[in-house]
Amino acid sequence: MVKSPGVPREAPVIAQARARGLPVLGELELAWRLLGERPWIVVTGTNGKTTTVELLGAMYRAAELPHAVVGNVGTAASALAGAPLAPDATIIAEASSFQLEDTVALAPEVAVLLNLAPDHLDRHGSFEDYRAAKLRAFERQGPEDVAIAPIDVPGAGRRITPPEVGEVRLRGPHNRENASAAAAAALARGVPEEAVREALRTFAGVPHRLEEVAERDGVLYVNDSKATNVDSTLVALRAFAGRRVHVLLGGRGGDQDYARLEAALTEQMTPYAFGEDSARLPGERFATLSEALSAARAAARPGDVVLLSPACKSFDQYRDFEARGDAFRQEVLA
Predict the structure, then answer these.
(1) Is 175 a catalytic residue?
(2) Angle made by CA atoms 305, 264, 329, in degrees to the nearest 5
(3) In the structure, what pLDDT confidence band is assigned to residue 9 with cuts at 50, 70 and 90?
(4) Annotated catalytic residue, options 3, 47, 67, 72
(5) Is 3 assigned a catalytic role?
(6) For a FRET experiment, which of 68, 192, 242, 303 has its CA 20 to 30 Å from that of 31?
(7) pTM above 0.85, yes or no
């Protein structure tokens, strides 16, 4: 049985299969078995995965090396089976905890853990189980493989220190960390240093992750709809240190504690709360994102930033974070 990452292990059909002794594989494990003769770079972590794998893809493109960027980023890794792909193409895979928990033999040549904070606890049950799922990316690596992880996360295998990086176009200290991890992974696989530096200088990021949508009347509008937890929003706020920020917060936050978020807000940050969790979030309350955006636009002055970084999932009013970010972008551009 091959299980979609979105299906929990407790689903009756999965539980029955396991009870009967049937092998249950995740989609990422299936892709590894189909494509495992090629080198793999697997990137996981609570935040920054998509940006990091896309930046790695930019490094490989700059070096004109065969590769494919797949996984949780959008294209399923198993979709490459049977596709025209060079025998030595590197598979650069974004891997969520949902994908990694069902791996059996996955052993990438390079595994990267960017960071780790409580997330998806409704699915995993505890932070320990969530962490264990993430660390499965490292469990079966051999002595010649490379593990890149924060030094304060034990049990992630042999570590190498990510290099200091030069000019980085991406905004914020968190993106310097992502860039450092991507550079370490690329250099470990033999990507020329000049190609790495070129990608760092030119890569502008991906949609919904600190995406600079437009500047209107001197106000910068930024779409960070992918910030679906408090830690992501804290990272986004640090990216605009020194500027006055109007931050749009809201959606479905689950059992998150917003006290850390409220404590991080300075006098230069004005929160606007919308959606299902608006009563729990700091700031004036609004029913919809559109209403919160209108209020922020009216209050913003030249030099300010209007930042959509909700700290919540989108499922109260949108089908996913992309739809929420698209709605923000369309309204700003209009």
Answers:
(1) no
(2) 30
(3) confident
(4) 72
(5) no
(6) 192
(7) no
